[in-house]
Amino acid sequence: MNDLQGKHFVLGLTGGIAAYKAAELCRALIKEGATVQVVMTEGAEQFITPVTMQALSGRSVYTSQWDAREPNNMPHINLSREADAIVIAPASADFMAKLLHGRADDLLSLMCLARPRADSVQGGAKEVPLLIAPAMNREMWSHPATQRNMAQLAADGAHMLGVGSGFQACGETGDGRMLEPAQLLEDIIAFFQPKALSGQRVLITAGPTFEAIDPVRGITNLSSGKMGFAIARAAHEAGAQVTLVAGPVGLATPRGVTRVDVRSARDMLAACEAHTATADVFIACAAVADWRPAAAAEQKIKKDGSGATPTMAFIENPDILASVAKTERARSGQLFCVGFAAESENLVEHAKAKRLRKGVPLLVGNLGPATFGQDDNALLLVDAHGVQQMERAPKLQLARALVQDIARRLQATPATATAATTAATTAATART
Ligand code: CTP
Predict the structure, then answer these.
(1) 22 with 128, same domain?
(2) Confidence (pTM)
(3) How far apart are CA 324 and CA 327, in angstroms?
(4) Using a 6 Å CB cutoff, which residues line ligand 1?
């Protein structure tokens, strides 16, 4: 999956030790299908050579506004007009201060000043967004001047990419490090996704739950969490505020997503209940264990050497989705609930029945054994009108399509209509 296929970037480097990370960012952009034109300030050249950036980008680097290679002698116009975005990484405190004042005494700042903005583009021309990845010492970062400048740059239409925190090249520890190339790449990819869920708050469950038998053993379900994590990423990319309630999985948290780690079904229910009052969409993707041992042993259960096996009583776990779908918020249509169904056979039949049983307007079916642990999946969307197939594809691609589909449903179904759908579903459930 090449998320930046066909996109062209001007990658601007300014003077900062994080310039070495720009080399990896350049590679990452190209690996994702983009083309990259590097522009460097004089300061950047003190940290990394144009030769390195030329070799990585496959294009000769521009460093001067007096570069005569362009026939009209206007690299600041020509290079930016071809671009889908200008990304400044690293952006030094000095360079940001310069941008803020509209100064333009080197090629990169000149190009930023001359970029077509959303509020200035004329007939047929396209906007060239400006994405800024700051990098500096923690004192420079927290200085009121820097914070003021950043706020003003954002108000002037730049997209600020934020910074990391931790050990800095100067030996101090704090905020101000440039984000890692992989993080920048994720943010840049997100920048280009349609913002269909802008302003919405989305709550997602993902992964399995783990129900303790004793302090070292438990029962769980097969689930890597990949589908739920992909949905969380896609919802964030679409502009939503995302809370991801995750069972025990070893996956990295998608950028910008708030993660709540839980272990058992009851923990997961409690975490969901703490967030449903403020959520607009609830997507239950977790493979919740249906039963838990009636009583977890306090100490490890030992073998006694006789070959006898322990007997165990089970209790049914709470149904998180069904209980959220019954809340007033869901029933009144303020909280749009989406369930999943992991089946091993008869997907259409089971998914239709499960949608009614859970009382949700939309249920997404998938065949568990065909997708557990894998990076791709095939989905079946079931609603009151019928079924719709999403063909096998990478989970992130399906997650983006699902998020767009949910956004369309939210737009097409104002709260009162959702309430009617939910009521109809409840009535249908009562009949079955
Ligand atoms: N679910 C839940 N809480 C449970 C069980 C399931 O919230 N205790 C949610 C899942 O996250 C999913 C949907 O309900 O969105 C269906 O889960 P699934 O495991 O497919 O079905 P079950 O409800 O467990 O039913 P069955 O085991 O009979 O297929």
Answers:
(1) yes
(2) 0.92
(3) 5
(4) 205, 265, 284, 286-288, 290, 317, 319-321, 339-342, 354, 358
